[in-house]
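Schema walkthrough. Field components (list of strings):
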Amino acid sequence: MKKLFAFGHHRPDTEALSALLDARLGAAQAAALDAHVAGCDACRGRLADLRAVRDALRAMPDADAPRSFRLRAADVERARPIAAPGRIARALPLVSAAAAAAFVVLIGAGIYARGGSTSSSNALTAYNSRQADSATRAESAPEGAAQAPAAPGPASAGKAIDATPVAGVDSAGATAPKAPDATAEAYGAAAAPVSKDDHTDLWCYAAAAAGIVAASTAGAALYARRKRAGI
Amino acid sequence: MMHPSPEPAGAPDEAALVRGARDGSLDAFNALVELHQRPAYNLCLRMLGTSAAAEDATQDAFLSAFRHIGSFQGSAFRPWLMRIAANACLDELRRRGRRPAVSLDAPAPGADAPPDPPDAAPGPEALALRREQQDVIQAALLLLSPDQRLAVIMCDLQGFAYEEIAVAMRTSVGTVKSRIARGREKLRRELGAKMERITGTHRQ
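Field assembly_structure (string):
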């Protein structure tokens, strides 16, 4: 019963009696409790006992400090490095949260980009190449036909793509059998940079993850230390 | 001012000392140590029951306080320090908890260096009696939960206000009130029959 009034019906709890001893009850509550105690032997006894306990505790002597607890410079040398991190420690959870959010965004963007890239982006690249090719086809057609069989260098991946249809369409016959090889090689070369990009993404994710783990660990450690120190 | 001049007349300005300590002045911090080491040590002594453990805990507390002085923001330095001292005691109690050899439930009153005798000795017989009373009360204190013990010690032995205890225990005044009440009630039961003998003169 937390209610402090109407003690005629409720036995006042110890908390109320204890607070009365310390004059920590409101005036009305104190008056009501006083009135109750005055007419209740049991409560008067309990109050007297509690008062006796408190008085005995108050009578406990203070001991002198057995020595000075002044810190020596040597103690402090060990202690100093941790003296500063208040602000950083407070900011760390924020940094961790921001890093986590960035990580999620990165992953999301990565998934989104990859989901689209394999189907549309590469096709787009190929399409663009073909457009560029058709623009130059008129002038370079004879040379393109001649070069088509010798096109497979990785540095000229785009050219190879350009060249193949040219060769296949414009100069059917002698160069036609070569076309599939050139095409395959051209797509292989074109695919290579894409898979390279995927690796770059993975490294980014790994780095971000490592950063987050490091930040979180540091934050948790600092928090634990501060908590242990009770600050 | 980084180096507070120890003026014998008045108490040094505590806020200035705290500022100095925050700026890394060991002298300023040690001036704070001088101001507060007695209550800090007594808190540890009553929490732990032995002077050796209290000495270690007090030393740990001041080191920790120096380490974390940068995060002290309030205006009440002593309750903050008391919290750190209490935590040093709780660490020690936890260590004891992992070492069942030293049981909290079986304190040996007087076995380990009892508190210093009161200053004005009224005579050997009375002194012995008082020492015995202290040991009985100290043993009873050790039966309380650490929370109740800390609240009772700060309130009744050290005279802190509920509000200061709440700061030190990082809890509400209502919780402090309740811990003090339950602590006193448990002490009343523990001391029980001994109460007459111990507090006979106080009994009303």
